[in-house]
Amino acid sequence: MHEYHNFINGRFVESPNCDRIEVTNPSTGRAICSVPESTASDLEAALDAAVAAQPGWARKPAVERGNALRALAAKIRRNVEPLARVITEEQGKILPLARVEVAFTADYLDYMAEWARRIEGEIIESDRPGETILLFRQPIGVIGGILPWNFPFFLIARKAAPALVTGNTIVIKPSEETPHNAVKFCELAIEAGLPPGLINVVHGRGPSVGRALASSPRAGMISFTGSVETGAAVMAAAAPNITKVNLELGGKAPAIVMADADIGLAVQAVKSSRVINSGQVCNCAERVYVQRKVADEFVGKLAAAMQNTRFGDPLADESVEYGPLINEAGFRKVSGLVERAAAAGAVVVTGGRRAPLEGGYYYEPTVLAGVRQEMEIIHREIFGPVAPVVTFEDLDEAIAYANDSDYGLTSSIYTRDLNVALRACQEIRFGETYINRENFEAMQGFHAGWRKSGIGGADGKHGLYEYTQTHMVYIQRT
Ligand code: NAD
Fold it and tell me: Is residue 357's pLDDT more than 90?
């Protein structure tokens, strides 16, 4: 079994005295490789490298920084297939989705590189004669990036690309579930000639290495993607140093299906939300509200579509639509939520159990009808191939149900009525709303959750500027 190492100052560094974390393939339960459970001194070495490299990097013209991202994107594009296989093996997503993740990562690096020539300050009118007021955007310094496992390769770029193009350096802690793809990312960074110290990767578990990174006074911002509970722990760890946090947290996206909707389109979009990455995606529809008049038709068609979904080991069979859940804890969460919903009166229309497949944690595609708004399954993130369906009478009720959530990441509505769509846009209190299409954000948008779904956001111009701080300069002519 291969032993991988931390990536510090442009090279892989052994941590001889560390315990090791074994990484397993969730489709089979078999061990793949191991990474170190890094120590405090490993993390300090990574921070040393990032701190030392940052001023020189920030002094380079932004376009040079962008070119470094482009070189990395080109290397990634030449390695889509092997990278996709690494992601699928450790995370369990199907190969076509892993290929999309890799290609999207390369595009994202190129997209952020384009911003190099567009980072702009401001000139502001002064109240004083002969004075010029300037607003500069400057790098924050060293960014700490803490990642989840569900889109692990892309999330490295989602944090590193805006950090680097704006003149920061970064120390990343990948999820302990999916560290292998981060090793591959670093290998390509070396091949692409990325200067040492810009990207550093330190492996380990959350409560040790993650917490130490979040509480380091040397990190200027912690960019975290993960669950609400861990996001709160990251905020608490960052608080004593008043370190800025950028938090991309969980979601519980409502999908509203009006009676006038294209039902076939809504069924396909909801199904795709619940099976993509085995339902383990923050932005996907997690609760479905259907207008009573079309509820039976919708539930029947959704159940048929879910029943026809092929799932299994994505490396053994490329035709499957989804693979296993990430681990036993994820499996217990999904099955517990479904069991308690059924006990509270929900009807299991299809699925509702562990699939009889050897090796991994496979859950059957599941549709629950007769779900009520107050049930736990409507309020907690499921992260599995399960669609709970609630019926509503009118738009007022649907909007009230949708907004009744601690989460506020994404939402969607299916209707042919422009007035209904517009009212939903104005009254649904979420960071993103998709109208008549499946949930998936664009890199030029701004992915930012309301309420407990996060603080700040990622992507586009607004995501880029999260990685800068302003510097006001007042110049008095004498
Ligand atoms: P998680 O919160 O369990 O772990 C995320 C990361 O935090 C891991 O690297 C983990 O090691 C680390 N961590 C754990 N405890 C820590 C601590 N005390 N201090 C610092 N770091 C710690 O999340 P997960 O299970 O890996 O990912 C799934 C979650 O991520 C879901 O809730 C999902 O909705 C969310 N997510 C959100 C977005 C978004 O863009 N909003 C994107 C992807 C995933």
Answer: no
Sorting pLDDT into bands at 50, 70 and 90, what band is 339?
very high
C-alpha span between 374 and 380 (Å, rounded): 11
**Alpha carbon distance 423, 63 (integer Å):** 43
Of ligand 1's listed atoms, the one at least distance from the Cα of 230 is: 2
Residue range 179-212, pLDDT digits in tens: 999 999 999 999 999 999 999 999 999 999 999 9
Question: In Å, how far are 165, 297, 372, 398, 416 from 291, measured between CA atoms?
Answer: 47, 11, 14, 8, 14
How many angstroms separate the alpha carbon of residue 230 from the centre of ligand 1? Answer: 6
Could you tell me if the CB of 216 is within 6 A of ligand 1?
Answer: no
The pair phi, psi for residue 127, each rounded to 5°, is: -85, -10
- Who's near 70: CB < 8 A, 6+ residues apart? 109, 110, 113
DSSP 361: B
Q: In the beta sheet, which residues pair with residue 176?
A: none
DSSP string covering 133-158: EEEEEEE-SEEEEE--SSSHHHHHHH
Nearest to 108 by CA among 145, 74, 73, 77: 73
- CB of 152 within 8 A of CB of 181? yes
Domains (range + CATH), the chain:
2-249+452-476 (3.40.605.10), 253-442 (3.40.309.10)
Decide: 175 in ligand 1 pocket, CB within 6 A: yes
- pLDDT at residue 1 greater than cutoff 90: no
CA dist 137 and 123 (Å) reads: 12
Q: Is the CB of 152 under 6 A from ligand 1?
A: no
Report CA 371 to chain centroid distance, whole Å: 28
